Amino acid sequence: MPPCLCVSLLPQLGCPSFLTFSTFRDVDTFVYLCASMKNITVIGGGTMGNGIAHVFAQSGFEVTLVDVASAALDKALATIGANLDRQIKKGALSEEGKAATLRRIHPMTDLKNGVSNADLVVEAATENIALKLKIFGDLDAFAPPGAVLATNTSSISITQIAAVTKRPTQVIGMHFMNPVPVMKLVEVIRGYATSNAVCEQIMTLSRQLGKDPVEVNDYPGFVANRILMPMLNEAIYTLYEGVSGVEEIDTVMKLGMAHPMGPLQLADFIGLDVCLSILRVLHDGFGNPKYAPCPLLVNMVTAGKLGAKSGEGFYVYTPGSKELVVAERFR
Ligand SMILES: NC(=O)c1ccc[n+]([C@@H]2O[C@H](COP(=O)([O-])OP(=O)(O)OC[C@H]3O[C@@H](n4cnc5c(N)ncnc54)[C@H](O)[C@@H]3O)[C@@H](O)[C@H]2O)c1
After folding, report:
1. How far is the CA of 295 from the centre of ligand 1 (A)?
2. For the domain 225-330, what is the CATH superfamily, name and number?
3. Residues catalogued as catalytic
4. In angstroms, rounded to a whole number, what is the distance separating the alpha carbons of residues 191 and 167?
5. Residue of the CA atom closest to atom 12 of ligand 1
6. Are 73 and 46 in contact (CB under 8 A)?
7. What is the spatial distance between Cα 10 and Cα 214, in angstroms, rounded to a whole number?
8. What is the mean pLDDT of each run of 10 residues along the chain (331 residues)?
9. Where does the chain hold its CATH 3.40.50.720 domain(s)?
10. Among the four 51, 110, 215, 311, which has the fewest Cβ within 10 Å?
11. How far is the C-alpha of 159 from the C-alpha of 171, rounded, in Å?
12. CATH fold label, 37-217
């Protein structure tokens, strides 16, 4: 297709007006990028997966939500319903908008059927490397050849995930933040082989969701966690070395640095096991002792004190109560 014809077709094909033929390296890339995405499959209906399904469905996409556990799917739909109700209360959504959003979400336990029609798959299953490599092998086998395969991983190498597929140019990181319907950032992570066209497509798609995407390269922790996790680890070291107490450390960072949440509370919110596993990825990936997880964090995870989700971390959490109470051991 000659470039002049391509340019004249841009509006008809629904391409954003800022794209010109010079944006594309070749005709294949042009045709590929112009094929608009309609069907999204989200793998994993937990904390992140339900939020990702929510924002895609609310933005008009048909969403298939796949989880191995049907109970997780029921819980995901209930959570999405409750979060849509919150938007209605705030006047940001109508009852009709809620019903239309829910109608666009199709829960399923079978991955093969769930991805058979996908233009884009966003994987948000449990953070476990063996599991993700297995899922991406299956996605490569069962998703249409043109589909883009994205992962919401917090820390696993996109390049390593892409390497188990036969389409590494179409594998990318799409790192949403928690809670997904509220947080504006999507960290878009380019694997070693990710093509320019796919990266551009995911940046554009993220904007269609009302998000502000930022493109980063694939190195341990990407940008968000490479900067955040050492700060949380340092806060835990500060407590471990007896420099100050839980409330005091969090208060210094809230009032002194205008952080909306102190680092110890944030670590509890993210999950101390998740923080530990990301720090290990940074430590292994860079081989630099500055990323070594604090022994107190390791002990807490070993003891099952994982933060808000387990009921205790640096604070204790009572269902139904929003009061922040420091855990007994740190009082
Ligand atoms: N929780 C966060 O704050 C956060 C933030 C950013 C990114 N992430 C990343 O998002 C991903 C999901 O995290 P989460 O907190 O939602 O986890 P979660 O434990 O809440 O949910 C994971 C879900 O994946 C499902 N699952 C497991 N194996 C599966 C499979 N083979 N096929 C389909 N579903 C499967 C589980 O049943 C569960 O419902 C992880 O990669 C995590 O690193 C998490």
Report:
1. 26
2. N-(1-d-carboxylethyl)-l-norvaline Dehydrogenase; domain 2 (1.10.1040.10)
3. 154, 175, 187, 225
4. 12
5. 124
6. no
7. 25
8. 39 40 43 71 96 98 98 97 97 97 98 98 95 98 98 96 98 96 97 98 98 98 97 98 98 98 96 94 96 98 96 95 94 96
9. 37-217
10. 110
11. 8
12. Rossmann fold (3.40.50)
- Dist. CA 116–CA 7, nearest whole Å: 31
Tokens encoding 75: 């819980």
- Cβ(128) – ligand 1 distance below 6 Å: no
- What pTM value is reported for the model? 0.87
| Ligand 1 pocket mutation pick from 41, 42, 43, 48 by most atoms within 8 angstroms of CB | 48
